[in-house]
Design a protein that fits this description.
Blueprint (H helix, E strand, L loop, with lengths): L1 H12 L1 H10 L1 H21 L14 H30 L6 H32 L5 H19 L3 H11 L2 H6 L4 H30 L4 H16 L3 H21 L34 H4 L9 H4 L6 H16 L3
Helix pairs in contact: 2-3, 2-4, 3-4, 4-5, 4-10, 5-9, 6-9, 6-11, 7-9, 9-10, 10-11
Length: 328
């Protein structure tokens, strides 16, 4: 019990300077949370109906990177905001310029991760073909990805990287660089520690559906709990259990997972419309169908009166004349 208390004390003590900085930089933290909220709003609008389930098609590179960066801002800003506040306090300046550069460097690292993920997805798809399709091995690979992520939660590498994110004071003191370039570089380095901490969780997001708003919220919540909850071991073991259960269910009974789109069921469209393809013919009416049809032209036989036959009229006229000359 004494050993457990001693192990927990440093973890909780690491929060002291962080939360003190949050209290003195409330405006900065509120600004980052506002940006995260805008990111969520934009992501919800942009990705509505695009969840294709595990291993969703990523569309074009430019579109994916743009969406990915906004996703990272929405998912990561709430958990990184205390670190940015601590950095701002250590600069002894109220100017937002350096904290913004620090945050930009942080996002730059995650943009690089997105580019790498896109290259792996495209290269892997070209190499394996449809081997990783859901009906073949995709289901098993997705489940295995979640199991690997669960195991990684208990590794020393995860522990070290998470420690840098939960108690960033040591990192900031050891990596301190003055000026704008220093702020950008420190943000990049802190983002690298964050990638080391969260790469398995992001891989789990791809395995569950990277365009799923539900699983985005779940992964973002797990990241925030791991970084901000005072009880570090509780957060780690809880995340491990969650990932393990999701991995087993994904393989055994994927239909039991709420919010999971199973590929091929047609419940959600793929993102193929985001690729550089020409518009489908269904969206372009042929010229022959676009022409305005004639305005209800009746046939000639029905457009004239029934008594308009000249020969018939002449016959009736003669008959009338004859009857008028007939006497009693």
């Amino acid at each position: 019990m004494i050993a457990s208390a001693q192990a927990t004390a440093p973890s909780r003590a690491g929060f002291t300077p962080v939360w003190a900085a949050v209290r003195t930089r409330v405006g900065l933290v509120a600004f980052l949370l506002l940006l995260a909220g805008v990111g969520w709003w934009w992501t919800v609008r942009e990705m509505d109906g695009m969840d294709g389930g595990p291993w969703t098609d990523l569309g074009t590179f430019a579109w994916f990177i743009g969406v990915w960066v906004v996703m990272m801002a929405a998912m990561m800003f709430p958990s990184v905001a205390p670190t940015v506040a601590l950095y701002s306090r250590m600069t002894r300046s109220r100017s937002p310029a350096l904290p913004i550069l620090f945050t930009s460097g942080y996002l730059l690292t995650w943009a690089g991760v997105g580019a790498l993920a896109f290259a792996v997805a495209v290269g892997g798809g070209s190499f394996t073909g449809d081997v990783l399709s859901w009906d073949r091995t995709g289901r098993w690979v997705a489940g295995a990805t979640l199991i690997v992520a669960a195991v990684y939660e208990l590794t020393p590498a995860k522990d070290v990287c998470l420690g840098k994110c939960r108690s960033p004071l040591g990192f900031l003191l050891g990596a301190w660089r003055d000026g704008p370039a220093g702020a950008l570089g420190m943000g990049v380095r802190h983002g690298a520690w964050c990638v080391g901490c969260c790469w398995a969780l992001m891989a789990s997001l791809f395995a569950l559906g990277v365009m799923s708003l539900v699983w985005m919220a779940v992964v973002a919540g797990v990241i925030a709990v791991e970084k901000l909850l005072p009880w570090r071991r509780v957060a780690l073991y809880g995340t491990t259990a969650l990932l393990g259960v999701l991995g087993v269910l994904l393989v055994a009974t994927p239909g039991a997972l709420p919010g999971l789109t199973i590929p091929g069921t047609g419940s959600m469209p793929r993102m193929s419309h985001m690729s550089n393809m020409e518009p489908t013919p269904t969206k372009q009416m042929p010229m022959s169908k676009m022409e305005t049809p004639p305005a209800k032209q009746m046939p000639m036989s029905t457009s004239t009166p029934a008594t308009s036959d000249p020969m018939s009229d002449m016959g009736k006229a003669k008959s009338g004349l004859g009857s008028s000359h007939m006497g009693p």
